[in-house]
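Why show two proteins at once? Because comparison is the fastest way to build intuition. When a single record is shown, students tend to memorize it. When two are placed side by side, the eye starts asking what differs. So, the first record is below.
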Amino acid sequence: MGAVGLDLLEVERLERALARRPKLAERLFTEAERDYAAARPRPVMHLAARFCAKEAVAKALELRAWSWQDIEVLRDGGAPRVRLRGALAGRDVRVRISLTHTRGLAGAVAVIDG
């Protein structure tokens, strides 16, 4: 199976949603994702890119129902990578992602091999 997923988001849209519903970040992002973003000058840009990555992975895997916590975007000094957790753990696939963001937009592409 080979598949591609793509997602794009206005950073301000996520920023407004998080301001209205402070607990939303805990539902959408793992603790490691929130910690990574919190250590950056404008955390919402990094959260928006991770939101897009999760959406792109879900699209590439053709998921209909899934948990935001089951797709985790990690960065250990190198390129960002995806770890499938929970109900998605154990899938025999390789997930590659590319993230981007500007002041106004965030985006991600996911490529699935396997």
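Second record. Ask yourself what differs from the first in the token line.
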Amino acid sequence: MKVFEKIVGWGHQNITARNKSTFEITKESSLTKKGDCIIAVNASKGASELNLDFKQLAKQKDAKISVTIEVDGLIETAIGLGGPVLTFTHPSDLVARMSDFYCGRTLMIKSNKAAIDFSTEFITKIQSPNQKILITLITEINE
């Protein structure tokens, strides 16, 4: 079984994507260079706004979650895990983590990518405030 979730975000001139353990999508519109994990701002959804089917499936014990991010023909994909620890309660943020740390902002744990792992060409494109970012979340479990 698979459930898809679509989100639209935007680039920002202060995106640095230097974080070595997470990447984040946020509904917030402002960004300082200290936010080195953020790869999209002005997102159409935060964790609490994901659809119920997505959240329920993502909370299953064997859930796999993938995040595909498309920018002007460039595609980056990160894969991680869901699980019962996820709460999806944060109103504005979605964070993919390489670790198994979780909180209300956590979209997935054990991600195979952090912000620093996205290509230089990709990061250059998302540093434009006019750059639209298409994000597809997929959660699935094998039945």
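One difference worth noting in the second protein: The chain has two helices and eight strands.
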